[in-house]
């Protein structure tokens, strides 16, 4: 027969054994129930901020309105799909892009922004595409592959732009080799410079590779890009909150998309060079 003392001790032991699992449950973080990685400002959505004025990276499909499309936007949507979430694209003023991360308006900023030391101080940068300068020539003239091939030829360029200095550097090299210089024709707008090539007034137009890709896509087959003339000197980066939990997940998603060939296919879709897809570049400008 159990004595009252033993009975009370048994009751206390039973209560203690029941309390242990309850205490363990109280200290366990609840499981994530919303789709997507932790850190999204709105669970189930990848909120992406972009400035849709840089064809073919991001632009309005209707020209001045409608759906925002482009390489960057499709990349963001591919990441969202890989996470099982919807991608919400937010039209954002250029100077509000990076501040939008800290203000919790954006999970991701992707808008043809170069990786720079200044931006990396306030946000995490994930490189994805090398960028630099290209020539645009009449279709069938891609034998003009190197800057030296333009010796003695006329190149149209946006007046006062960095491309003028680029051509002058090439001319210094040509002069040192005793070769004819490039004739530099400056125009008040890049479309006018491209028009000079189409009309035969110039042999080529020089601009950023993105601008040349845009000109080619709108030229009805009259222009093509020469992408081998210059080495890329900058890299585009996607930006996420500084030291945030999304950065690692975003890098992993990009790597997977690259391995599947998705990024190269997107580059082809928008007339960009798939060989410039680069997830490991350490290029960084000072500005």
Automatic annotation (TrEMBL):
SMART domains from the UniProt entry: PBPb
Annotated InterPro entries: Solute-binding_3/MltF_N
Gene3D superfamilies reported in the protein's UniProt record: Periplasmic binding protein-like II
Superkingdom of source: Bacteria
Matching PANTHER family: ARGININE-BINDING EXTRACELLULAR PROTEIN ARTP (PTHR35936:SF17), MEMBRANE-BOUND LYTIC MUREIN TRANSGLYCOSYLASE F (PTHR35936)
Residue span(s) of domain Solute-binding protein family 3/N-terminal: 45-274
Signal peptide: 1-26
Species annotation: Arthrobacter globiformis (strain ATCC 8010 / DSM 20124 / JCM 1332 / NBRC 12137 / NCIMB 8907 / NRRL B-2979 / 168)
Protein name in UniProt: Amino acid ABC transporter amino acid-binding protein
Pfam short name (any one): SBP_bac_3
The entry's keywords: Signal
